Amino acid sequence: MAADAPHPAFEGYATEAVPQAAVGSPGKDGVLELTFERTADGTALVHDYATVPFHISGTLAHDPHPSADTVFIQSPTGGIAQGDRHDVSIAVGDEAIAHVSTQSSTKVQTMTCNYAAADTTLSVGAGGHLEYVPEPTILHADSRYFQELTVDLAPGATAVVSDVVVPGRLARGERFEFERYISRVRGTGPDGLLFEDATHLTPADSDPTAPGVLGEFTVYGTTFVLAPDRDETELSDALHAVVTDGEARAGATALPNGAGVAVRALGDRAETVQATLHGAWDHARQELLDVPAPSGRKY
Amino acid sequence: MSDTATLESFRLADSFLPVGTYTVSYGLEQFIQDDRVEDAADLEALLVTYLRHQVGPAELVALRAAHAAATEGDLDAICEADRRLSAVTLAAEFRESAQRSGDRLLSLQTDLRDEPVLDRYAERVAADGSPGNYAVVLGVATGLADVDVRDACLLCCHGFVTGLLGAAQRLLSLGHTDAQRILDDLRSVMAEAVDDSEDRTIDQMTPFAPLVDVVAAEHERAERRLFAS
């Protein structure tokens, strides 16, 4: 007898497998589009379109900057499943200031077939500023995840883009049990490619804890402070001084082609890496917008 | 390979080549300062990481592209590989080192050889139209000298490792025999790094060594240091 049959007449039904929704079917190919424009009253979200698993409940106005707008991307699902393909496009118009984050960590679930992928395209207009600082990505055992993020900057545009990856549900002792993780972050400007950062981890083939790779650390994050019109050496030194005080092992370096600064942080817990990177974000915000970063509290 | 090509590869692989590799440690100095590298075994493990995660998936990919482009006289393709390598090298100190030694090798080669591609590439670099990374200059030099591309890749690995072993001898109490033993032990890792680079296009350069980046960032600001990187 099938264990979950509510009545003997339903036993036959209960033995039948439910095929998983196919790649591309509703709920599997989430699309999110956000467009911010500068208006007389500051920044406004002028276009938003979200399909499951993305959900938007309007904007928040808690930013310390008077003309900035904030969106927290919500998800009604338990995370990213095999076969999911997500497509996120965020455009910030000239002189607009937007901060986009997620409400909680993105959990990439265990997989037995196929893979999950997310493609994120960010663009910032002249004199605009975008902060894309999502909560960490947690890679569950046997997951396969491919994410690609491109940020395009118009002249005078600036951005802060952050990415933190947690290699398993650490509290239950799961670490580096995922199958494959590829993440590419690419920055472009009016003259083309500024920089590209790729993470490719396949723990079964290549030890992520090798010296110089992650070493004794587990959680890894990078914050890109993109400000092509700024003196990147000065900003790099200032951000380095800020992050070396933190609990995580971190450092800042000037990006190629004068794109800005990359701050890398390694730690044992997501919280310490996030706290260190938040310090860098806060400092960058004081430099670029003259206001501190929002606290990061989501509840 | 012809005798001329073989001799050219020996010359380019020799630590006698005046390109300033004795001034770079690619963060090794800071790894030692940080007590992360204390003996020959630690050093060898770190060199494995460099070969697998930096040289193989980035430098060698650029070298191959430059080698092929030089053979075909395609200056734009050389510069594209060059710019791409800089764009994926996030540690500022490593870009500076690669450009400094690249610049020296390029000026040396243009003095020695009469090759229009080399001259045009040197002009492009001088006009800031291309960064002039060492791996790319080496790719151009070996391509023009008819050094087989696999040999050129191995030569690059050998040069990288001997350069760092030289730095290690000055930073650690590492004996000559230990240095030779490490070089010998790393032969298979060098061959693997060359294999890894083989099927990659220049869009597939994926160096990944975050802790090296963090340590290099600390080295950039170190008050007392012997090496430029």
From TrEMBL, chain A:
Keywords: Chaperone, Cytoplasm, Nickel insertion. One of its GO terms (cellular component) is cytoplasm. Pfam families: UreD. InterPro entries: UreD. It is found in: Cytoplasm. Its main location: cytoplasm. One of its GO terms (molecular function) is nickel cation binding. Belongs to the UreD family. UreD, UreF and UreG form a complex that acts as a GTP-hydrolysis-dependent molecular chaperone, activating the urease apoprotein by helping to assemble the nickel containing metallocenter of UreC. The UreE protein probably delivers the nickel. Required for maturation of urease via the functional incorporation of the urease nickel metallocenter. This is Urease accessory protein UreD.
UniProtKB/TrEMBL annotation, chain B:
It comes from the Archaea. InterPro entries: UreF, UreF_sf. GO terms for molecular function: nickel cation binding. This is Urease accessory protein UreF. Keywords: Chaperone, Nickel insertion. PANTHER family: UREASE ACCESSORY PROTEIN F. The keyword Chaperone applies.
